[in-house]
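Board notes (copied after class):
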Amino acid sequence: MKRFLLDTHVFVWLVEEPGQITRSLLDELADIDNEVFLSAASFWEIAMNRNRGRMKFEGNVIDEMRAAKFRELPVTGAHYEAAVALPEIHKDPFDRLLVAQALAEGLILVTRDKLLAAYNVPMIRV
């Protein structure tokens, strides 16, 4: 069993542009033996980007997450503390939080952001 944490843009692609994702990764994410998580931070990031006109995500994030059989990963105080303790390699607070969550929870981060590899987080690059 593998356990994945989706970067926000990967979740958006899965819902709106699945052609951005390789067939092999789509199969892994759909495998019922694997667990796929979406951070509560991604809900906030999507909402902020929609409100600023930077994203046209049309669906309801919770409904789309549940339809895909993904699980919500709450953000804890320990996650925030871990994110703040990370070196300043990446400036985006959402990405730093996802790295901290992946490290704390033993998850494989699924992202296209090559800068995140500098944190030595287990990851799959899209």
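Comment from the instructor: DSSP finds six helices and five strands in the chain. Residues 25 and 61 are 21 Å apart (CA to CA).
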